[in-house]
């Protein structure tokens, strides 16, 4: 005798909200997929804050669901297996279930198998849980051969990290930057061909960190970006171009820039030509000896020179054989206690 369907929708809103608060994250997501009627019910549950993370590496395409106080859920979209065109792995803590799909049958169906690609899973979870995407980490060498980067379309994330040991092509980098659209922090730790076409709209971030040489980028290009914070390591920039950058700033360019930190790839052997007004020691009377970069680090500016923009903004700079820094003060007094000094 078949069991009668449970009249879930006949319960009061308060009753089913109470029941759903007892569900763990995995059960709540599973429940939302039972039927169209159940689809939006979990959205009324107030859960702990969580976030989504995407990783494309030699392990495949992984979507992590992280909720404070609960085990991390790991969905894997491994679509590079030739014998099994689509393969999914579901892991919660140490429990693992793997499934291979083919054209004729599905024996076990983990939740990730409901989605055609990682982007559709992200869209569903963002609507269901009201979570955001914290990070997208991509090694281009491990992009699945069958993946169309358009399937990775992510409207917004906090961090986009592109890394790898081989050189990334112009087409690959452009496709990644176009499809992972709004990012707060762009980290690039991979060699890029020198003929990469600089398009300001692709680098639409607030913070930019480049850990490899960037011959495709000049300091003049920075004034065309909305980015406010720049860090370049192993940079091919020259000390004289850094001085020219400051002169352009004094002329009114780059008003939104907060700081520029450059670690030269090779020691500078030629002293740059520095206009006298950039080395005026009487610009400001008192300021902190350290500039706060973030909640963990500060930059030691004890020996830096101060310059003042016509708008009233004060900046501090210093050039050395192996590094250059330029920081704009929003508050001349910074509390640098419990922070560690930044190392070039």
Sum this structure up briefly.
The chain is an alpha/beta fold. It is 15% helix and 31% strand. It has a domain at 222-344.
Residues in helices, as a percent range: 10-25%
Number of beta strands: 17
Overall mean pLDDT: 83
- Strand fraction: 25-35%
Count of helix runs: 5
Please mark out the parts with pLDDT under 50 across 5 or more consecutive residues, or reply none. Answer: 79-90, 96-109
Q: Biggest sheet, in brief? A: 14 strands, mixed
Which strands sit side by side, in order, in the main sheet? 5-4-3-2-1-6-7-8-9-10-11-16-15-14
Q: What structural category characterises the helix and strand content?
A: alpha/beta
**What sequence of helices (H) and strands (E) makes up the elements?**
HHEEEEEHEEHEEEHEEEEEEE
Straight-line N-to-C gap: 73 Å
What general outline do the C-alpha atoms trace? Answer: elongated
Rg, Å, rounded: 25 Å
Organism: Caenorhabditis remanei (Caenorhabditis vulgaris)
Protein name: F-box domain-containing protein
């Amino acid at each position: 005798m078949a069991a009668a369907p449970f009249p879930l929708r006949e319960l009061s809103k308060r009753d089913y909200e109470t029941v759903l608060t007892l569900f763990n994250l995995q059960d709540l997501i599973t429940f939302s997929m039972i039927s169209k009627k159940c689809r939006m019910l979990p959205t009324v549950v107030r859960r702990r804050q969580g976030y989504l993370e995407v990783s494309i590496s030699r392990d495949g395409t992984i979507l992590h669901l992280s909720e404070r106080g609960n085990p991390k859920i790991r969905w894997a979209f491994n679509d590079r297996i030739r014998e099994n065109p689509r393969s999914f792995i579901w892991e919660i803590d140490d429990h693992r279930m793997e499934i291979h799909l083919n054209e004729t049958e599905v024996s076990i169906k983990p939740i990730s198998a409901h989605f055609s690609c990682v982007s559709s899973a992200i869209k569903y979870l963002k609507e269901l849980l009201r979570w955001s995407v914290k990070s997208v980490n991509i090694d281009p060498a491990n992009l699945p051969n069958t993946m169309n980067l358009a399937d990775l379309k992510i409207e917004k994330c906090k961090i986009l990290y592109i890394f790898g040991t081989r050189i990334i092509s112009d087409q690959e980098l452009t496709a990644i930057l176009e499809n992972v659209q709004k990012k707060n922090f762009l980290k690039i730790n991979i060699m890029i061909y020198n003929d990469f076409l600089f398009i300001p709209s692709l680098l639409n971030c607030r913070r930019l960190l480049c850990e490899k040489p960037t011959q495709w980028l000049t300091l003049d290009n920075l004034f065309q970006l909305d980015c406010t914070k720049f860090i370049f390591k192993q940079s091919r920039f020259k000390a004289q171009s850094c001085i020219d950058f400051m002169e352009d700033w004094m002329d009114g360019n780059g008003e939104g820039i907060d700081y520029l930190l450059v670690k030269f790839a090779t020691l500078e052997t030629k002293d740059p030509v520095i206009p006298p007004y950039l080395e005026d020691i009487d610009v400001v009377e008192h300021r902190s000896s350290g500039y706060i970069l973030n909640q963990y680090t500060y930059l030691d500016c004890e020996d830096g020179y101060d310059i003042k923009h016509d708008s009233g903004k004060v900046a501090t700079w210093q050039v050395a054989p192996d590094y250059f820094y330029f920081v704009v003060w929003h508050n001349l007094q910074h509390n640098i206690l419990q922070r560690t000094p930044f190392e070039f």
